[in-house]
Amino acid sequence: MDLQMLTDLYEFSMANGYFATLPHERQARFDVFYRRVPDNGSFVVAAGLQQVVEQVNNWHFSPENIEYLKSLKQFSPEFLDYLSQAKNRCFIKALPEGTPVFPREPILSICGPLIEAQLLETFVLNIVNHQSLIATKSWQINHAAQGRPIMEFGARRAQGPDAATFGARAAIIGGCTSTSNLQAASRFNIPAAGTMAHAWVESFPDELSAFQAWAKVYPDKVSLLVDTYDVLKSGVPNAIRVFKQVRAQGHEPVGIRIDSGDISQLAIAARKMLDDAGFKDAKITASNALDAHVVKSLLDEGAPIDNFGIGERLITSSSSPVLSGVYKLAEEKVNNQWVPTIKVSDSREKITIPGNKQVYRIYDNDHPEQAVADVIALTDETLQAPLKVVNSNPQATNANKVLVNFTAQPLLQDCLTPEGPQKIESDVFKIQQHAKEAIGQLPEATKRLVNPDRYPVYLTAKLAKLQEELIARADFAAQD
Q: Cα separation of 284 and 457, whole Å?
């Protein structure tokens, strides 16, 4: 699916205006970043880069697109002719997918002709906001599960086919082990998971017959849904009867799934029944509208759950369903010279960070496996100790700091260059591993699900000075 028309009308209105009033080759750089973390967390897991690169690299307008734009009677013939011949000339640098990213840090930066870069805004934000949101929610749930496998079960509750498919991909990046969505499983080489629904059990004369029929068809995949009628009075006892029959035939059962009721108490009782019957290796899977806080609560209560199947609250991030990433102009090339730009607001939080930037993760040389801060710098800067920095958090007190004895790792990498797309990781489980390693380097207090500690993000003194100069210049212009 080509996304060049997944663009708000005002993007075309501005592009048409640029075409009429500015040099057609005016270059610009836009940054994608966010200001607030969903669910009051401390970071977002970056995702969506692969799809962004593919879509931007193949950006063009078909004759049908041009005819539709012409029918709106808002754009000049010259502008439409320009679009009909346009091919992508924009470049991208970005954080690798799976990287934890903090407020106001560029997730990716797009540079190219102003007209063309402007027209990329909507679909780029759509991709990055959605996939990063789901990857982040997935990480939170997997963190709560303490290493227990999470199966992504959300396709039927996702907001559309693309959200289901790319949401499943993002869920794997965040830590899930499998998906029930075969579209995503086949497209992204993800293990497919799932057993039965209640309809299977209801389609037979009784629960035992349903379980026996399943075991006959799938003798090595006997995982039984035990809550259609009564978990402890019929579901688990019938499952145990079938497990014994399966074992007698030389197969070992997988386990049971509980999808309703007081899952903690049911799991405790079911575990004892399974153990007493000689099925200590049979797994208990829990599902039914779970999220990170429910998972943590179940495990805190001692519920003996081995796996979780999580759908709607993962694939929709229902508790915090929006990542409000933005696409803001950072600099323009005027008279062959790059000029930094800034958006000024009465709210200090909404003031943008100007210029062409790099993000560095800072490691204490005495503890090189632990990240201690991030620094946003201009690309022409070299970070050396001692380094004067300013806290990027607008509400920070004691904002000035000097960093010493550190190693700085640059995070933004070239992904789409004049030579074409650069090699970026596409294997979702390798991206997941990168996420685990990168998040593992963060302070533990930063990873709390409730009231996490704020991870420090700084601006270099040079960048902070540039920002203040542009704010003062904008204030002066507003008063003039």
A: 42
